[in-house]
Specification:
By secondary structure, this protein is mostly helical. Helices cover 74% and strands 0% of the residues. The protein contains ten helices and no strands. The longest helix is centred in the middle third of the chain and has 28 residues.
Amino acid sequence: MEIKDRILNHAHQLFMRNGIKSVSMDDIAADLAMSKKTLYKWFENKDQIVEASMTRHLAGTQNECTVMINAASSAIDELFKMLAWIKQEFGNVHPSIFYDLRKFHPATWQLWQAHKNEFILSQIKENLRRGIAEGLFQANLDMEVLSRLRLAQIELQFDPELYPTRDFAKERVSVALLEHFMLGVATIKGHKLINQYRNVTDEE
């Protein structure tokens, strides 16, 4: 199992850095200083590595997010913690990663879709409920509509046609989209707390 974990660790780093399509079994073996024969003893093809890598990555992501949410002092603190995590998690992700998954690895793409539409969506809804209960978000929000809006934003930031990487750093897009969303759902109390995090001193 230790060898299998090493393979998945190295492959995941290569996929994130270079995109999935451009990474071959030869590249993975070379990065591991391992023979292709040994690599093929553990995985029959690259598709299996992509799927196993994503399965493990998503399980770890869900655990990290749960810990982070439980440590947050408020719904807004939760979102700013999430923003910091997104910067770290996706700061060096190759812009083609979602396109490669969707086009060349449909089974693994479905894993991501399930994670997004079940886990991430449920966490967004829980955050909205928490913010409403804390008086930080407006009580009359259409949660079903807005939670899906936020869900769509997560993928939009990786759309190279909408935000070409030569013009838009991912961190810039992530911050702008999340802050716009928060300010749109926040009460006056929520705006004041958001501005504290943003170091904005203007009066509401």
